[in-house]
Amino acid sequence: MHCPFCRHEDTRVIDSRTADDGSAIRRRRQCPECGRRFSTLETSSLSVVKRSGVVEPFSREKVVSGVRKACQGRPVSDDDLALLAQQVEEAVRASGAAQIDSQEVGLAILGPLRELDEVAYLRFASVYSAFSSLEDFEAAIRTLREAEAARAQGASATVGDDQGAGTGPVR
């Protein structure tokens, strides 16, 4: 790292801290030549390859704006959308790739959006997956209902397992 003041070729790190929810590192540096201190912010780059072949940096704001349209009129707050965008970015970064297809970003949005609001999920999925008929909607709704039934059945099994706990004799 070059010193921004005297352009000396080397600097030493005095302190390092995470920043921006752990997605960046802020380093405090000092130049051994002029003795001045400065800070740097290091982030890993993540690029999205669009269908047209254009490559652009990943943007949480674009995720939020795309999902906001699907959430219009739904009880979803800006904080909910910001958290969803963070979850999407974490999922995309977990792949370890420096470039990712926009298709994969869309897939990463579907899971958290489904948990956030099922109506918004259906709206987003209908555009993203290019639903072309009522059958496409019916299949998506059937999948949502099956998942809800499985969740409800899992919850009732857990409650049933705990009912007999602690009723035996104490020794």
UniProtKB/TrEMBL annotation:
Any note on cofactor binding? Binds 1 zinc ion.
- ZnF unnamed residues are 3-34
Q: List, for all copies, the residue spans of the domain called ATP-cone.
A: 46-136
| Short name of any one Pfam family annotated for the protein | Zn_ribbon_NrdR
- Keyword Nucleotide-binding among UniProt keywords: yes
Which PROSITE patterns does the UniProt record give?
ATP_CONE (PS51161)
Q: Where is this region: Disordered?
A: 152-171
What is the residue range of the signal peptide feature?
none
User: What highest taxon heads this organism's lineage?
Assistant: Bacteria
Q: Which UniProt keywords apply?
A: ATP-binding, DNA-binding, Metal-binding, Nucleotide-binding, Repressor, Transcription, Transcription regulation, Zinc, Zinc-finger
User: What is its cofactor?
Assistant: Zn(2+)
Q: What is known about what this protein does?
A: Negatively regulates transcription of bacterial ribonucleotide reductase nrd genes and operons by binding to NrdR-boxes.
The similarity comment for this entry is: Belongs to the NrdR family.
> PANTHER family from the xrefs?
TRANSCRIPTIONAL REPRESSOR NRDR
* Protein name (record): Transcriptional repressor NrdR
**Species annotation:** Georgenia faecalis
Q: What is the lineage of its organism?
A: Bacteria, Bacillati, Actinomycetota, Actinomycetes, Micrococcales
What gene does the UniProt entry assign to this protein? nrdR
